[in-house]
Amino acid sequence: MVFSLHRKKGFLAFALVVIVVAGIACLGLNAVKAYIYPQSYSNYVEKYCGEYGIDENLTYAVIHTESGFDSDAVSHMGACGLMQIMPETFEWLRSKIGADESDIDIFDPETNIRYGVYFLSVLNNEFGDERLAIAAYHAGMGRVNQWLSDSVISPDGKTLENIPFDDTEYYVKKVERAKKVYETLY
What we know:
Elements: H1 2-36, H2 42-52, H3 56-67, H4 87-97, H5 109-127, H6 130-139, H7 141-149, H8 166-185
C-alpha cells in the first residue's frame, strides 16, 4: 500500500512536470512564431486597413511574404518597400488616390502600406475574391483577367482552381499560410 501511494505521488509529480514543460514549450513556440510573424507598423496597418476595408491579417501576410518587414527592400524586378510595389503601379495608384505631392517616398513605411493596402482593396473590388486578389497582387490584374477569360483555365470565368504560373500559385499559398498564422497568433 505504501509503495502504491508513493508511486502515485511520483506519477503525479511527473505528470505535473510534463504539463509545465509542454506549457512552456507552447508559449515558447508562440513567442518564436510572433518573432517570425511580427505585427510591425501596426498603427499604419490598422489605419489603412480600416480606411480601405482590408483584413489586417492579409496585409501582415503580404508584408511578411513580400519584404519580411524590410522597408528598404527592393526585388530583382524593381518592386519597392514593405509591400513591394512596382514604381509604375505606385504612380498609377497615386493617380487613383489623387495624391498630388511630387515628393512622396515609395520606401516610407506609412506611404508604402497606404498604397499597398489601397491596391489590395482595388484588386479585391475588381475580383470579389481574396485568392484572386492575392494572385493579381503578384501577377497583375491583366494576367488574372486573361486567365479568367480562358475557359480551359477558368471554366466558370470567376475562379481559378489552378493558377497557371507556378510562382504565382506558390506566392498565393505562401500568403494564405502566413495569413492563417497571423489569425492563429493574434
